[in-house]
């Protein structure tokens, strides 16, 4: 109960669209994206190239040929390069599960406090186990008997 309250308070104070780890990851990817060049042909598909590699990024489908964006929900280096070229913030294109608002919704519920075990009511339930012949490994009977 205390951990849920702590998490909620911490995240409510935090500013920004995404969780801290995602924000840090996007900062690193933004710095690395300076090594790439994004080219458009007028469609939502972009060719992002470096001296050694070329990747196709589809900003409409939120996908990249490298596969990182689809797997993690965070724009990869190549997608960040495209968003830099478009003067858009890549934080706005993170999967909704990684947004601060979603995190706050998860921790929005409350747990009812409980009395200690000494105050719990005793349950008077008898559980009977009926042994069925032939169902346990130890019962190896011949069918013909």
> Which strand order spans the largest sheet, edge to edge or round the barrel?
1-2-3-4
Mean pLDDT, rounded to whole units? Answer: 84
Count of individual beta strands: 4
SSE series: HHEEEEHHH
Kindly report how far apart the N and C termini lie. 60 Å
Percentage of residues in strands: 5-15%
Class by alpha and beta content: alpha+beta
Give me the Rg, rounded: 28 Å
Indicate the overall shape. elongated
Q: Which spans of ≥5 residues are poorly predicted at pLDDT below 50?
A: none
The total number of structural domains is 1
Major pleated sheet? 4 strands, antiparallel
Helix content: 25-40%
Number of helices: 5
Question: What order do the helices and strands come in, and which of them pair?
Answer:
Layout: H1 2-13, H2 20-32, E1 37-40, E2 45-49, E3 54-58, E4 63-64, H3 68-72, H4 77-85, H5 100-106
Antiparallel strand pairs: 1-2, 2-3, 3-4
Helix pairs in contact: 2-4
Descriptive notes:
The model has no long low-confidence stretch (mean pLDDT 84). The protein has one domain (2-106). A hairpin with a 4-residue loop joins strand 1 and strand 2 (45-49). 32% of the residues lie in helices and 11% in strands. The protein starts with a helix and ends in a 39-residue tail after the last helix. Strands 1-2-3-4 form a 4-stranded antiparallel beta sheet. It is α+β, with helices and mostly antiparallel strands and 145 residues long. The longest helix has 13 residues, at 20-32. It has 5 helices and 4 strands, in the order H-H-E-E-E-E-H-H-H.
């Amino acid at each position: 109960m205390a951990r849920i309250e702590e998490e909620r308070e911490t995240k409510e104070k935090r500013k920004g669209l995404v969780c801290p780890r995602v924000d840090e990851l996007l900062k690193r990817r933004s710095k690395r994206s300076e090594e790439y060049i994004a080219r458009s042909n007028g469609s939502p598909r972009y060719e992002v190239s470096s001296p050694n590699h070329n990747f196709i990024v589809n900003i409409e489908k939120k996908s990249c040929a490298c596969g990182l964006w689809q797997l993690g929900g965070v724009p990869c280096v190549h997608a960040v390069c495209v968003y830099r070229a478009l003067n858009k913030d890549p934080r706005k294109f993170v999967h909704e599960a990684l947004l601060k608002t979603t995190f706050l919704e998860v921790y929005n519920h409350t747990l009812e406090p409980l009395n200690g075990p000494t105050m719990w009511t005793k349950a008077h339930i008898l559980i009977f186990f009926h042994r069925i012949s032939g169902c346990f490994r130890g019962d190896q009977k011949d069918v013909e008997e």
